Amino acid sequence: MNSELLIPLLTAAVISGTPILYATLGEIITEKAGVLNLGVEGVMMMGCFCAFITAQLTGQPWLAFLAAGLAGLCTASLHGLVCLVFQGNQVVSGLALTIFGTGLANYLGTPYIGLAAPGFSPLPIPGLAELPFLGPVFFNHDPLVYLSYLLPGCLWLVFRHSRFGLGLRAVGQSPAAVLAAGLNATAYRWGGILIGGFFMGLGGAYLSLAYTHLWTNNLSAGRGWIAVALVIFAFWRPGRAVFGAYLFGGIMALQLRLQAGGTTLPSSLLLMLPYALTVAVLLFSSWQRGTQAPAALGTNIEPSS
To answer: I need a surface site. Which of 46, 178, 195, 304 has the fewest CB within 10 A?
Structure first.
């Protein structure tokens, strides 16, 4: 494949992969704390709608971006309420959150279908954007893409070198050990759920503020489920999540280009590609060794812990 075809595809992979990356990082934070949240799709949709409506009402994309994060945080707090306060099943709660968030966002957003809102436009980085090959692929995007470049490294530093990050990882491995050290395991889990939900909401914001600039129902289109699978593929490592997000973004971009190019392949087969890759990724990850999830993932702890 020559560069004239490869560069646009890789550029589209970065754009398509950015919302998945935000959501994947949010789920990594949540699962590092030992909480499984299958409601990523619903959280993203609520962030997506709140970003759109805030941008349309205020004309301020950055304010809308922040509103989406807060909407994701509030939506994820319902998961925390069920799992941490009422000791509910984390899988059931997450599935219910997906249904709730997706349904509510679609219901509230129906009157706005097809309407546009102010958002983010490409902002080339002087000097870097002119680099051969790398420039158009990585440095000719909107500010939200550039922000996503920084987040994996920042999260790695937090997990490895901050008191909060070490405590978060510890409660995901052994809540009893955290309690014995005199720390509040439940508080750390709340932190993981809320901060993770904030990141998921930012992923939804990207879809309505940068990816489309308009509202349509089901805008997340299954990206939340892909993010859940990518956490396993990334082995709960933020750096590896970048590769996975761009890989899936590339597959999504490829199937859209194949459809636009008039391929003879059935459209249903092309639409299936990202999800077939999801299954393949899970199979690949299951064959790896030494890549286990946090030991206490999905296990409830007492509210007083």
So the answer is: 304
